[in-house]
Amino acid sequence: MKLKRFLAPAFVLIMLAIGTAAFTQSFPVMLGMNKGPKQPINFSHRLHAGTLKMDCLYCHYAAEKSPSANIPTATTCMGCHKAAATDRPEIVKLTKMYNEGTPPEWVEVYHLPDHVKFNHKRHVKAGVKCQDCHGPVQEMDVMYQYSSLKMGWCLKCHRENVNHPQNPASMDCLVCHH
Amino acid sequence: MSSDEAKKLSHAATADAGPVITQKSLNDDVLRMISKPGRLWWIIFIIDLMILAVGLIAERNQILYGIGVAGHTRPVMWASYVANFVFWVGIAHCGTLVSAILFLFRSHFRRAVYRVAEAMTVFGVLTAGLFPLLHTGRPWFAYWLFPYPNQRQLWPNFRSPLEWDVFAVTTYLTVSSIFFLVGIIPDAAVARDRTNNRWLKLIYTVFSMGWTGSNNQWKNFYGAYLYFAALATPLVLSVHSVVSWDFAMSQVPGWHSTIFAPYFVAGAIFSGVAMVINLLIPIRKAFKLEHIVTVDHIEKLSKLVLLTSSIVGYSYLCEFFSAWYGPSKVERDLFWWRATGHFAWAFWIMFTCNVIIPLSLWFKPVRRNMGLLFVLCLSFNVGMYFERFVIIVTSLAHPFNPSTWDVNYRMSWTEGAILAGSFAWFFMFFLIFVRLLPAFSIAEIKETLTAPMRRKPS
Amino acid sequence: MTDSVVFKRRDFLKLVGLGAVGAAGCAPPADKLIPYLVPPQDILPGIGYWYASTCRECPVGCGILVKSRDGRAIKIEGNPAHPVNRGGLCARGHAGLQGLYDPDRVTGPMMKTAGAWKPVSWDEALQTATAKLTEARSAGKSVALVTENATGSFHKLSAAWAAAAGGTHLVYEPFNTHALREANRRTFGVGAVPNYDFARANMVISFGADFLETWGNPVGQARGFSEMRARPESYFVTVEPRLSNTGANADEWVAAKPGGEMALALGMAHVILSEGLGGGNGGMIDAVRDWTPEAVELQTEVPAATVRRLAQKFANAKPGLAVAGGIASQSEHAVAMIAAVNLLNHVAGNVGETVRFDRTLDFDSVASLGDLQTLAGQMADGSVGALVVHGANPVYAAPAWTGFAAAMDKVPFKISLSGVLDETTEHCDLILPSLHALESLGDAATARGVFSIIQPTMQPLPMFKTKAAGDTLIALARGAGFGSFPSTWSEYLKGEWRGMHGRFGGGKDFGGFWDQTLAQGGVWEDVTGTSPGWSGTPVFAAPELRGSGDLALVLYPSPNLFDGRGANKGWLQEIPDPTTKAVWGSWAEIHPDTAKKLGIAMGDAIKVETESGSVSVPAFVWAGVRPDVVAVPLGQGHTSYGRFAKDRGVNAVALLAPVQDAASGAVAYFGERAKVSKTAAAGELVRTQRERSQHDREIAAVIPVSALLGLNTGRGATEGPHATGEHGAGAPGAHGGAAAGEHAGGHHVMAGSLMLHPLQSKPGKYTEPRIKDPNAKVPPHSVSAAEQPVIVRSPRQIPVDRGNYGTATHRWAMAIDLNSCTGCTACVAACYAENNIPIVGPEHIKRGREMSWIRIERFEENLKPGPNDVRFVPMMCQHCSDAPCETVCPVYATYHNPEGLNAQVYNRCVGTRYCSNNCPYKVRAFNFFDYSAPEKPSFAFPEPLNWQLNPDVTVRSKGVMEKCTMCIQRILEGKGTAKDEGRAVRDGDITTACAQSCPTQAIVFGDLIDPESNVSKLSHGERRYWVLNELNTKPGVTYLKKIQREVAST
Question: Is the pTM of this model over 0.90?
Fold first, then answer.
């Protein structure tokens, strides 16, 4: 009887807590549900960035020069794959696309709403590792969204680096929202 | 004290040629109201719901297409919605005044009327509370005004008068509803014991909170009531002061004035009491309760109206005086424009209804003529609505920078519908209330009755 | 929030990059990211690249820089290196983008079959066209080619083309300069449009020339004009029956009787000659003998004394400058009138000084109205077998009595190369749509010694199947087998430029030369003008007003729409006319007295009637026109030409009488009487600013010359608090020992504006002087030049240790010189382009719902002829240090950022609109509807207009407040660049869109902390003041008072 009284409120509270957490934290990643979308070509970051130790900026060269990191062009891929591993089915697929002039339609993994202006260049130049936000890419066969991209998640890092000697992170709303 | 009060009351009753009230008759009279509703009630109720529906449709358009469907302009960014808000908060005022302050002052004419007034308060706040929401451009984000921990690590701006509003109104709603519910306990118990409909019984059981009428309960009941009265009293003054600061704290000429808080409170009580009278007169007529809600009661209320109207009138003149006497040309220009410019008609309606017409209440016959009083009180409420309109719209329409003048506000049908809808919303609650709960405090009125089995009071 | 707007924008160039756009916080749809297949050479996604080109929105051809981001042109700015406009750009120039992305552009070749347009393939279209051309030529009929004044290679091509085709090439411009060139030919012996040096002139007298709006080279002239105005002793008189926006900037308005300009000029010449104040020969004296000041007074109603005074002042100016232009110079005696002004210039010794024939504007090939009528005649009698039109729109702009429109129907086959469906195109049988100037390659030689390049700033829009006009012409010629042209237009162009190579190559090979030319937007050389003598005095005759009616009709080109070619651009329709502040329509201006007589009130529907026609328009009643004048703007009233232009206002060309200047063959826009009467309905007069007086609120302040010269400039711009203030972040002058002097000075300067301020409330009995701690450190975000020298009621502490507030090192601010501002509204257009500001249309503007972040406020202190006092105030967010809007926002959507900006965070805004209520400047715009959602009726960016949107600026959604951000995106970019180069931000690195585009450089943006920055020098100069300063908002925008010259009473 006594217990019953407390059950309902307790239940409600727990639900609320879970709800909040689910909204604010990126649960899937925490629970290891790191399932990325199916891409037109099964490109493996684990192979390229992990095993072959290729530099991220080799393909995503715009990341350090421009606010937006580029998706590598088919030409970039063919740079190596004219010669390398030309027999693999995926590469055959790629080559076909390249010759037909139809660029692969990659499915977006990291999405920001329009009212957030994220600048890759500034972060890369400030010494933020790609992995800090994109996770252990070198271990991902399929790319998945590692971080929640929630505002709180951004602020966490910014708050820590407000008084960074060389590159103080800004806490000014206007820097990202304009 | 109760005895002479009783004399008055019974005397009034005889004067009304109504039957002398006994414990039994009182119960019957009051509880008769919450018997099965008749056709008339249903007709009114259905019409009410229809009007409400129209209001809802208008609101749906506004959410779908944007606040632009209302008549706002630059510079008149606030208009009817905020006026409605202030109006309803004002209405909501007198309830607590009547029930709490007058209770503390032991002015017993309140007993017959305070339940209605309190109900009005609660429903008034419920209505008022809608407008801060639906006047925003993005109502679905209005919850950001509440301070709650969030992953964005953001807090509301506690310096903003609008933020104060959030607290003032919610507090007022909480306290006034508790006050209302506490007061209703014994009467709900009576109703509970009378009814044989099991659903109603269930409801009354909830409202009466297991009331048995034991001595101990009465003791606690009155204790609680006293404390809540004491708690509610400061709110009567604070809430509308805070509301007035929405304007007074800004620097808009015509708003930026220290007189606003008392001025608004007086106005609120003015319109609130007028509204109570407007509600009481039909009720006592419809349910033949002239002997319970006597003319004396109504007259006392109308005196309150007279008092507050003179305060309001004084404030008007005061504003004009300080505008004329003060150094600010902008202020001067504004007040001149307010009385002579594009919205002069609104201003003069306001002035007539709130200052000139109330003067008639100096005459006893007017105060005791129910029909006339009803009409007068209606006009007071119209006047008070226009007061809010004038304060908000005219001040905004004539700001510092002349280049934005003459972009005059015109009320759109959407706003009209939503205003009507707000009345429908209010009366929906009220209609249900009079049919569901004892609209008059049996317990307290009984106090004034000559206790049975006693000698007649000398 | 804005999915599809930006989404569309993205899948054009198949670029990855800009984060896709989802509703605020909602889960996004899985967007496709499509990379280039082959990356374009050194072009990075997300970075804007600037391409130099030339503006083709009017014949002047200003140099422009076009910002191309992710392959889309998104912004146009003036090219500072270009000699024609020197960095400025007018509103029409900015709106070129909206011509490029006009949703009503022709989608591809179209053939008119049974009166309806049917799309056809290019091959089919070209075959038909060539067939028709051959047919026409084989039938021995001529082929006519009508073009705009393209100049440069395209002009050569079309001329050659027409010649080869055996026909005429007619260059049509509605506002041509025939009279001017003819008059110059007769008087100076040089038939050219001279280069007027406003900068050097000490006194300018304008006879109807609206040289700041549409006449001549407005942007360049405005620049010179502002340099002249900067000199307190300079003086500007305008002579016109209707106070144009140019005239509004004058010190003195001489409202001569319509058509009296010539008499006045001669009268002045007479005084100068008879009093021997200037040079001149006997012939001249004879010529002006009859024009004594008294005689002039009879003809012009200008008092003889005034004529004398002006003449003497003018002669003593040394050099002065008299310009004749605008509609006044387009009467049937235009040549005589201009000749009179030339004479005035000559006798005052200005020719060769301020009137020079070095960098003359090229209108030489423009056809006269006579030529047009001749062609119309040939067309009518069937001797023209085929007609090709490009760029020109004579059916709209030429009066009906020229018979051109009618004659077109007589021509068997008409081809239009226009990209939009204008009136002339509607009369054609086939459309071969051309590229927009911003998509195409070409050149322009609009001014002598200037050869500007037009280069494609983006690849042609995919939804429009268009071809370069040159290529089309060549293809037609080759198809029809006449002439010998290189295979493509670009080869032809290169060929032309090979000729230039020798002259400008500077030893480079052609490739290098070409690249360099593209990079700098053209090549130019210094040219020295022949300083001509006086070749002959023509006979002078004053124009007779024709027709009945008691009002003189003044038709004038709309500053925004020009000859009507701007009408299809939403920005130009929505940006208010500088004079009337009216939008989206036409109107007729009449004097209050006249209005009273006719019982007409502001906005009433009236009918303006001449013998040739009549138009019904709303009345605009103001004292800026003479009581005997009715003025109607041109440029509206299109019957076609896209959704923005169609059926708006009236085309006042209908009122023109069949008259032209006999001497030059220029159409006579002036010289008619008109009747005005009330009528039933005539559209609505929608204005953004209705109140035209500032009610002594000192929003637009002036400083008399005497006071200015009297001021002890001890604490002038250069020295002052900054230089001495040792603490870097210290508020300028507000603190420390250095502040003492500043305070005295402060009082001294403030005395006028504060102590005696009409709005200034007296300090209360208990108000304390602010106690200043000598080493108090005021954080940058609260720095303002407007440190109140008087008491304040509540000293407030600002947290300096929070977030970046302590470490910030900038305070962004502006200084706006009201003495330079001409009210031209170029800044408004620039702001629309830079900040994705939607257009809302007349219905909402009626309710003050225009979204523009900056507006030009116009206050008329004195509109009577004589001393003229009209003031312009560019009003945008003042970025106050103590901003009223910030404290009242319940959710911190608006707050003060560490660098002093008053920030507005759209996605935090709930839309209570309290901030706007509390803003004394009323500079906040609210999104009353969803202008960014394609599915909503209020969508403001119909495809492909949304391609112009700036990816760096959020497209605001419904229900949020927005306002000037001082172009935060540009600030961030500038700071980023500086950081990359490992240096501090330099003054001039960063500028806002409005400041950049201002033709007179009235707006200066910069860092108030940096004592050496231009802005902080100006902000502490002696002309500084702050709008509504008594509210103690401490604005970040400092205004400089307009210099008010004394005007003699006579």
Answer: no
